[in-house]
Each structure stands twice: as structure tokens, then as C-alpha cells.
Design brief:
Blueprint (H helix, E strand, L loop, with lengths): L2 E6 L3 H11 L4 E6 L2 H11 L3 E5 L7 H11 L4 E6 L4 H9 L4 E4 L4 H20 L11 H5 L8 H13 L6 E5 L5 H10 L8 E5 L5 H9 L16 H4 L4 E5 L6 H13 L1 E3 L6 E3 L3 E6 L3 H6 L5 H7 L2 E5 L9 H15 L6 E2 L1 H9 L5 H15 L4 E2 L1 H16 L2 H4 L4 H8 L3 H7 L4 H20 L4 H8 L3 H10 L4
Parallel strand pairs: 1-2, 1-3, 3-4, 4-5, 6-11, 6-12, 7-8, 8-11, 13-14
Antiparallel strand pairs: 9-10
The structure holds adenosine-5'-triphosphate and magnesium ion (MG).
Length: 480
């Protein structure tokens, strides 16, 4: 018990039939013949799943669907109809229905759809699908939750509900910062393997010649530095899920080795001849287009097909604008709490600025911006000026044609410094050179680390400096 099923139909015979057929199941049932009563029920009892007849007196099922979704965007609604019309079905799915079934109802099928809809709804509640910011609870701001209520994200939640429990390989593609790792964790958290390990390996962060041993382990003496046997990630997460991030960066040689393991679910440690059998689910992610990599012969086509049995594409934040206010609110709560502030919201002009921003760094960028703004905010509302340094710096760059600047950023920085130069000189007399250079270096390092999720190897590679230099600067500038 505990899960709630609402059935709305004006035909009392159908109501009775559905009541009987769901009676023994683990549902608390609500039966309504009237649409307004059904909407009140959604408000008061928050059912998980609703079966809704499209042909109702007073209002059509589609209208009720729309109103129901306004009350609880996470409600999984199954539309039923006596007439099959593609347009109705499309309309229903567009308005956020979970599924669309035609009468006479095949009870077996209906039950299976209801169960899937329930999973999807529970998942939405669990990965905290929150249609309205006020639905985000205190506890949720503490952990890394994944939210979204745009149609694109709803499709993703539905798919997670459908595939989480299977052991199928999952490939997640999307631009940097769109939440690929978070999605990988959501799939894992909702799978049967959730009590077994989840291990993430960033394929780009580990030098090519060490990746094989990282994944599959090695025997003592396998190579010069192999002083003892080492158990690899695949063995460590036996029974669990391995997340291979940045799979697009894997060398062709390692791709071949991975493919063999996926085909047989067995391997040998480097330098060993004992065959190790494992049962590991593989989730991979990349911000490259693997199709292009395959075309350019940088990625093996056979491995590509093996990895993308289930394929997710996370849309960029600019393609799902409606999620921005929701995310702002989540991060606002999260960082207010972190810094012990009591920030209640975002001023309308500030919100406009945020909505208009292109968010090339996607959710990670938005999160960082809200983080800084919360730090700078003096009152209890975030104002446009709390974001201004960030947004101005960006527009400063925008005005200058980066194409014509080539590798010489003198004009770029000149233009940015010009309006501030007098003040800087005044404040830093005798130290201008050192302080500006230091500031630039610090900003660069922060951005590189931010871009690569604090991965030092990748940040150093991006900047073209050694990892030791990077470490030294992180310490020197006290970069957290
Ligand atoms: N839907 C979401 N709801 C809340 N937070 C999110 C969401 N998507 C991403 N984030 C947050 O944004 C940041 C970036 O997410 P994540 O690391 O999963 O992105 P990514 O796609 O793996 O990026 P990259 O390709 O750069 O590795 C993380 O801090 C994550 O918690
Ligand atoms: Mg990532």
C-alpha cells in the first residue's frame, strides 16, 4: 500500500471493472465520475498515477490533463479513449500524458502501463522532478539532486524509469555541464544494482598506457612500476555499475580491450593469465559526437553499438529554457544554506538577465553563477548587480571579435581593463603588474578547473601547463 491510483471515468461500469481489477493490487484506489472532484482529489491526495477517460461531460480529458499537470506536474496520467485518433494521442502526449490507450481496455496491458507509470512517477519524485520551486524541500538542497520539468526532461525521466532496472548498456551524450554524470547516478540509484558499487572512471584523465590497468588491474611485475597485484575498477565493482566518463577520448587500442570485455564479461589482469569473470553494468558518457568520431575512424563502430543499447541525449540548457527558473531556485536554496544566508529570491531584472544568458556551460555554469551571486549578495534578494561582474565580463568579450583577435588577446583585455584602469592603479600603486597578472592566472585556473569538474589532469592539459605547476598555483592562490 502507499501508492495511489486515481481512476476517472463517467461510465460507472468501467469504474467498477477497473476497481475490481486493481482491488488486489498494492494501490490505494480513488474513483471519480466527475472531473472537478477528480481535480480536487489530485490536489488533496496527490495520487501517483491517474487513469483518465478523454470523453467526459463538462470538460474533455485533455483539459483535465492540463489542469492536473498544473497541480502536480509529476502525476503520471494514462489517457483512455473510445475513439482512436492519432491527433488526440499526440495532443495527450504533448500535454504530458504518460501513455494513451484505446478502449476496449486490455486489462493486462493497462496493468503493465500503470506499473510503468508508477515507476516513472516514483522516479520523478525520487530524482526530484519538481515542477514548482516551492516543491523543493530542505533535505533535497543538501544532496546533488537532478531536477527539470521541461518536456525534454520529462521524456528523460520516463526513459530512466523504463531502462534503469535492465542491465542494458547506456550511453549518455550531451554538451559539457548538462548533467551527464548526474544522470548516470540517477540511473544507478534507480536500478536493481543500487546496493552494489558505483565507480566512475574518467577515461580522459588517465594516461592511455595506464587506463587498461586502471580498468582491469594488473599482476605483480606486469610492468616496471607494478610492485604488487592491483585489482582494477571492473573487479572492484563486480555486481555494480561502472561509469566510463569521456569515453570518446579512449584510444583505439583501449577501445578494443573494452569491447572484448563487454562481449565476454571476462578479462585477464595486465600481465596475468587468470580469467576473471565479472557482472558489471556499463554506463558511458561523452560530450563529443560519437557518430562523428566513428565516421572519422576515431571510435570503433562495433563498440559504439555495444555501448548505446540505450542512448540518452541531454539537451543543452538553451534548449530547455523553462528549466532555468527551477534550477535557479534550487541552487539559490542550496548556496544560501551553504553560506548561512537567508536569500528569498531573485529580483525580476536579475531573472531576466539570467533567462537571456546563453549558458554555454549549461547547468554547471548556471550553478557557478548562482554560487558567486549568493556570496556577493548583501540583502535577501539577488539583484542584477550581484551577477554584474560575471555578465559584464562576458559582454566585454562579446563586443570584441575573437576571430580577428587570433591568439593575441591584448585587444580583448585592453578593452576590458580600460574602464577600470584608473581605479586599479589607484588601489594597487606599485603592484599593478603583479596583481593583474596574478588575478588573470587565478581566474584562468579557476575556470579551467570549473570546466573540468576540478579534475587537475584535464585542467592542466587544457591550459597547457604541467600538473605540478597547476598544483603549485592552486596552493599559492588558495583555490578551493
Ligand atoms: N538537472 C539538474 N538538476 C540539478 N543539478 C544539475 C542538473 N544537471 C546538472 N546539474 C549540476 O550541474 C553540474 C554539472 O553536471 P554534470 O557534472 O553531471 O555534467 P556533465 O554533463 O557530466 O559535464 P561534463 O561533460 O563537463 O563532465 C553538477 O554540479 C550537477 O550537480
Ligand atoms: Mg561529466
Amino acid at each position: 500500500m502507499g501508492n495511489k491510483l486515481l481512476i476517472v471515468d463517467d461510465d460507472h461500469l468501467i469504474l467498477k471493472m477497473l476497481e475490481d481489477s486493481f482491488a488486489g493490487d498494492e494501490f490505494e484506489l480513488f474513483l471519480e465520475k466527475d472531473v472537478d472532484a477528480a481535480l480536487r482529489r489530485i490536489m488533496s491526495d496527490r495520487p501517483n498515477v491517474a487513469i483518465l477517460d478523454i470523453c467526459m461531460p463538462k470538460k474533455s480529458g485533455l483539459e483535465v490533463l492540463q489542469e492536473a499537470k498544473k497541480i502536480d506536474p509529476g502525476l503520471a496520467v494514462i489517457i483512455t479513449t473510445g475513439f482512436s485518433s492519432t491527433q488526440n494521442a499526440i495532443e495527450a502526449m504533448k500535454r504530458g500524458a504518460y501513455d494513451y490507450l484505446t478502449k476496449p481496455l486490455d486489462l493486462h496491458k493497462l496493468k503493465s502501463v500503470v506499473n510503468k507509470a508508477l515507476e516513472c512517477n516514483l522516479l520523478n519524485r525520487k530524482v526530484h522532478y519538481a515542477g514548482r520551486p516551492e516543491q523543493i524541500t530542505e533535505a533535497e538542497t543538501a544532496e546533488d539532486i537532478m531536477i527539470g520539468s521541461s518536456p525534454e526532461m520529462i521524456e528523460i525521466w520516463k526513459m530512466v524509469g523504463q531502462v534503469a532496472d535492465s542491465d542494458a548498456a547506456v550511453l549518455i551524450q550531451g554538451e559539457s555541464g548538462t548533467g551527464k554524470e548526474l544522470l548516470a547516478r540517477a540511473i544507478y540509484n534507480n536500478s536493481r544494482r543500487k546496493n552494489r558499487p558505483f565507480l566512475a572512471v574518467n577515461c580522459a584523465a588517465i594516461p592511455e598506457n595506464l587506463l587498461e590497468s586502471e580498468l582491469f588491474g594488473h599482476e605483480k611485475g606486469a610492468f616496471t612500476d607494478a610492485h604488487a597485484r592491483r585489482i582494477g575498477k571492473f573487479e572492484q565493482c563486480n555486481g555494480g555499475t561502472i561509469f566510463l566518463d569521456e569515453i570518446g577520448e579512449m584510444s583505439l587500442a583501449n577501445q578494443g580491450k573494452l569491447l572484448r570485455v563487454l562481449e565476454g564479461q571476462e578479462f585477464q589482469r595486465v600481465g596475468g593469465n587468470e580469467t576473471v569473470k565479472v557482472d558489471v553494468r556499463v554506463v558511458t558518457a561523452t560530450n563529443r559526437s560519437l557518430v562523428n568520431s566513428v565516421k572519422e575512424k576515431q571510435f570503433r563502430i562495433d563498440l559504439f553499438y555495444r555501448l548505446r543499447v540505450v542512448s540518452f541525449f541531454l539537451p543543452s540548457l538553451r534548449d530547455r529554457h523553462e528549466d532555468i527558473p527551477l534550477l535557479i531556485n534550487l541552487f539559490l536554496k542550496k548556496f544560501s544554506k551553504k553560506y548561512g544566508k537567508n536569500i528569498k529570491g531573485v529580483a525580476p531584472e536579475a531573472k531576466e538577465l539570467l533567462l537571456a544568458n546563453p549558458w554555454e556551460g549549461n547547468i554547471r555554469e548556471l550553478k557557478n553563477v548562482i554560487n558567486s551571486a549568493v556570496v556577493f549578495c548583501k540583502g535577501d534578494i539577488l539583484l542584477a548587480e550581484d551577477f554584474s561582474s560575471f555578465l559584464q565580463a562576458r559582454s566585454g568579450f562579446r563586443e570584441i571579435d575573437l576571430e580577428t583577435a587570433g591568439d593575441d588577446y591584448c585587444a580583448v583585455f585592453g578593452k576590458m581593463l580600460e574602464p577600470l584602469f584608473d581605479t586599479i592603479c589607484h588601489k594597487n600603486n606599485g603592484m599593478v603588474y603583479e596583481n593583474i597578472n596574478m588575478g588573470l592566472e587565478k581566474a584562468l585556473i579557476r575556470m579551467a578547473l570549473g570546466k573540468h569538474n576540478n579534475n587537475q589532469v584535464l585542467a592542466a592539459k587544457l591550459l597547457g601547463i604541467s600538473r605540478n605547476t597547476l598544483r603549485d598555483r592552486i596552493e599559492r592562490y588558495n583555490i578551493a
